[in-house]
Amino acid sequence: MTTSRNTAIRFALLAAPLLLAGCASLSGNGGMTPIQDAAKNHLGATLLAASTDQDLDGIDQRVAELLTKPLTADSAVQIALLNNRGLQASFQELGIAEAEMVQASRMPNPGFSIAKLKRGDEREIERGFSFDLGHLVALPLARQVESRRFAAVQRSVAMEMLSLAAETRKAFYAAVAAEQTASYMRDVRATADAGAELARRLAQAGNWTKLQQAREHGFFSEAVLNAARAESARVSARERLTRLMGLWGSQSAFALPARLPDLPADPQDRPDIEQVAMTTRLDVQGAKAMVEATAKNLGLSKVTRFINVLELGYQRNSSNEAPRQTGYEIGIEIPLFDWGDARIAKAEAVYMQSAHRAAKTAVEARSEVREAYQGYRSAYDVAKHFRDDVVPTAKRISDENVLLYNGMFISVFELLADARAQIASVNGSIEALRDFWVAQSDLDMALVGKPSLGGAGPSASVAGTGGGAAAH
Amino acid sequence: MFSRRNFFRGAGALTAAVSASAVSRVAMAALPEPVLQTKPDTMAPLVPNTGRPYNPVVTLNGWTLPWRMNQGVKEFHLVAEPVVRELAPGMKAHLWGYNGQSPGPTIEVVEGDRVRIFVTNRLPEHTSIHWHGQRLPNGMDGVSGLTQKSIQPGQTYVYEFVARRPGTFMYHPHADEMTQMAMGMMGFWVTHPKVKNPQIDEVDRDFCFLLNAFDIDPGAATPKIMTMTDFNLWCWNSRVFPGIDTLNVRKNDKVRIRIGNLTMTNHPIHVHGHEFTVTGTDGGPTPKAGRWPEVTTDIAVGQMRQIEFLADEEGDWAFHCHKSHHTMNAMGHNVPTMIGVDHRQVAKQITKLVPDYMVMGERGMADMGEMTMPLPDNTLPMMTGEGPFGGVEMGGMFSILKVRKDQKRGDYSDPGWYQHPKGEVAFPWTGALPEPARFAAEGGQSMPRLQRKDATAEVNVRKPSGHSGH
């Protein structure tokens, strides 16, 4: 209805640019910037939301490049961040949320209706142009809601990204440890095999009875079991890492380092860790933002309780039997039965709910970060004890036993029995080092979000670890 | 050998368990000065310069305790104390002994001497001394609880009796004796005849030593006193080969060797190259009519034997216990026999877990003597000793009787290796071997088994294979 210069339309058309001035527009990268910043600041990694085939090709190339060298914890994280399709799906969700936000901040389209009615010979054509005035009034507020929701989605995607990184890091350490254990168990099996072979030859040479030979064979069969279990643990730890990194096909033949990184010289001393966590944790920040958002929503509900059904329309009705009718129409809901107090009550409850949730989040965050730090410190102490005491003691015992063997005070079978007793300490030391690195990852995660404490994935259980006694 | 007036002040390091102030200095002043020995070497005979004269003995890796004459009484002072004894170069043991050494000094007296022995206890527990084989008043016999109160730490007791009969004796504690003898407390005692005795010949050389045994774990220094039979160090005077001195004599010397057994098993003592007769025991001289020639005499537990022979064959003659395990040093008694078991390949796999592992024993035990591999601290190799022709592969109760025509009378020093006259050493045969004579008249089984199993275990002779290079 352009012919008419209706004041209402004029108002609406003039008002719209004013209202929409500075309104959100699509960022062009799907709202990824803060996520990318988080990845860069917390992990030193880069992110790319793959929207096109070209993007995917780029990712493939970068992953292939990273896979040419044995993985490190950082490169495994980088691969997971680029290549994990679950994360990519979340990036798209971010795009969806951004689009919705932009959508919400745009002026509603005006409505046009036309009706042609016939009553006997009377033909009535009813034209209507309508514009959701309420929406227009609420637009600045709605924009705020949507942008807060978008920010929440951003935080949640950032969280997901960080937690994927933490899980990948843990899976990496677990996989390396499992690899190390499996390789050690293969050595043990080879040595046990040698012992069994020696026992067989002793029996063959007539120096040993069948009973003595059978007893010595026991170590070998136990070692075979342990090697098989370690191999199975190795495969499942590796597969978990493979899944997190989103690898398949020939990519899954990635190389891992032979050993876990050494224990740092000193553990981090973090007396202020709770305070730090309160400012750095995304979930705490998110909870705070949510409280603010619901507070504004509450205010909005109060403001719009009467007008959100206000409707403004221009009418031009014509009939073949009557002069043309023109005018406008304002419909307003009379709050006779619904004064909007239920909506207010709901908004208030939602507000209180988010306030409580924020408090809960803060309490839990403090506890989690304390627990993570405690776990980190004790994992450090345990790993250090293994490194400085348990393993050197086992080594000393082994050295002394070799001296005794040299003097023919004990036989090679006692040496083997001793080696068998050492399996527990070597294995324990690998696991303690792995647990330290896992605890370190948990601690890092606890400072940015909710950690999944503990759980480094499956580990090889070792049979007969207490078996220090000679088997003959 | 040295003596110190301030002995109790200076020797504190040896006896941490007993405070020096436990012994009264005033009381000590009246006693003969205790004489200490710091070296395990064989000391020259102690020629008597007071009292009745006699022909002194030489204690193998030991010494004779000096005395003082006090109004016609020979006074000795024994100090029971913890000592460090070198069992052989490379190994020292924490033992208990007397006057700085285990065994304690030999006490030499003459038949009819009145003897007064002061015994000071510097051990952490009570003790006593029993004078094995002596005729003496019952209250001087040294059995604590039975004939006397035990000597408490810090106390000094005195024993006094007349050495009534000549012969070969010893002394040892009779208080907690399982511990104290296992720790090396013992000593020799010789009573020389006062006048010419028809049963006792004059000799040119008179050696004495005690047989004793310890169980010291490789790498440790203190004997395990609970061990009853499975000892690992078989000693003569708390020394093992190659720590035992040689017995050096002049050709045609009349030699007497006195041996006492304070181990817990018997020892067939064997001399090469000569026959000897047993001329006395701790019961006294054996009647001449009852002596017979031997080359080995078995010395039972708690017994003493004195053997005599004319050293008329020149050379380096082995002299040892004939129990072959007693001429080894510490060894494992539960090590499987590896003879004939080739495990070179297998060893490679074992070194994955035990990197320093080496193959040993598949040819026999002589590998031990040939290889010099690191052993636990303070541990002697099992078979050792380098002779003029190679490794002797001995340990424990082994020594050498060295007979030389140019050894000076009274000279006990080692003359070195024997120079064999031409043609008197075994040599490798290079000619053809004659066909051996066959013996065809084998007997049958006297009582064959009725139901004989068909299958017999297959046991094959194992000849050495050609591999070498251990």
- Span of the ends, CA to CA of chain A: 105 Å
Q: Helical element count of chain A?
A: 11
Report the portion of residues of chain A in β strands: 5-15%
Mean pLDDT of chain B: 88
- Per DSSP, the total helix count of chain B is 5
**Termini distance of chain B?**
45 Å
Rg of chain A from C-alpha positions? 35 Å
Helical percentage of chain A: 55-70%
pLDDT < 50 runs, ≥5 residues of chain A: 1-5, 8-22, 456-472
Mean pLDDT of chain A: 82
- Sheet bearing the most strands of chain B, described? 7 strands, mixed
Query: What is the β-strand count of chain B?
Result: 25
Strand order of the largest sheet of chain A: 1-2-3-4
Kindly report the greatest chain-chain contact and the residue count on each side. A-B, 37 and 40 residues
Query: How does the overall form of chain A come out from the CA principal axes?
Result: elongated
H/E order of the elements of chain B? Answer: EHHEEEEEEEEEEHEEEEEEEEEEEHHEEE
- The helix content of chain B, as a percent range, equals under 10%
Main sheet makeup of chain A = 4 strands, antiparallel
Summarize the structure.
Chain A is α+β, with helices and mostly antiparallel strands and 472 residues long. Chain A has helices at 7-20, 33-43, 53-67, 73-83, 85-104, 133-204, 210-245, 273-280, 282-304, 341-406, 412-446; strands spanning 111-119, 122-131, 311-319, 322-331.
What is the secondary structure topology, with strand pairs?
The complex is a heterodimer of chains A (472) and B (470).
Chain A: H1 7-20, H2 33-43, H3 53-67, H4 73-83, H5 85-104, E1 111-119, E2 122-131, H6 133-204, H7 210-245, H8 273-280, H9 282-304, E3 311-319, E4 322-331, H10 341-406, H11 412-446
Antiparallel strand pairs in A: 1-2, 2-3, 3-4
Helix pairs in contact in A: 1-6, 2-6, 3-4, 4-6, 5-6, 6-7, 6-9, 6-11, 8-10, 9-10, 10-11
Chain B: E1 2-3, H1 7-10, H2 25-29, E2 35-36, E3 58-59, E4 68-70, E5 73-88, E6 91-98, E7 107-110, E8 114-121, E9 130-132, E10 156-162, E11 167-172, H3 177-182, E12 187-192, E13 205-214, E14 233-236, E15 247-250, E16 253-261, E17 267-271, E18 277-281, E19 284-285, E20 296-299, E21 304-311, E22 315-321, H4 344-353, H5 367-370, E23 384-387, E24 390-394, E25 398-404
